[in-house]
Amino acid sequence: MISVQSSTPAAFLLENSFNPASYSQPGDRLPIQRLGKQFFLPVAKIVWIGTKHRLVYAYTENKQHVLDFGMEELYSRLASSTFFRIHRSVIVNLKQIEKITPLSDGRCQLTMKDFMHSAVLVSRYRTADFMKAVRSMH
User: Fold this and answer.
1) Rounded-to-integer distance, Cα 67 and Cα 50, Å
2) Considering only Cβ atoms within 10 Å of each terminal Cβ, which end of the chain, N or C, has fewer?
3) How many H helices and E strands in the chain?
4) Region of poorest pLDDT, from 3-17, 19-33, 91-105
5) Rounded distance between C-alpha atoms, residue 16 and residue 79, angstroms
6) Is the pLDDT of residue 14 over 80?
């Protein structure tokens, strides 16, 4: 329930405007900018998130989106039962993994269900916890 106590319409809009920094509803939507306009990306559509050239990208089934959040902040906002940080620069949606391939060095490679069928590596140090998280999903 929203309580309106503002004296003017402008004051109401200012008090109730969207602030990405205060957005904290896990499992909902994340704000993205595209062509100078603000859109909302449903978290459920995110296949994986990764960094490249100091930018953070969310990959979906058919697109790549630039996010205005750091990896730490994103991971704290995402539902921990669905998302897992497999590497310092990669967060995956556990429901969007197409294939898990064990590697000889103790790591594993994931093939994701995004538009590129991206291959991402699980850190050697996070492999055991990742496998526990995957098993708990089934």
Assistant:
1) 10
2) N
3) 3, 10
4) 3-17
5) 25
6) no
| 72, amino acid identity | E
Closest by Cα among 7, 40, 30, 36 to 93: 30
| Cα 111 to Cα 106: distance, rounded to the nearest angstrom | 17
How distant is the alpha carbon of residue 32 from its chain centre?
12
**Domains of the chain and any CATH numbers:** 24-137 (2.40.50.1020)
Residue of 105, 104, 73 lying closest to 91 (CA atoms): 73
Distance (Å, whole) CA 95 – CA 127: 17
State both tokens at 18: 């969207």
- Map tokens 């994340």 to a residue: 30
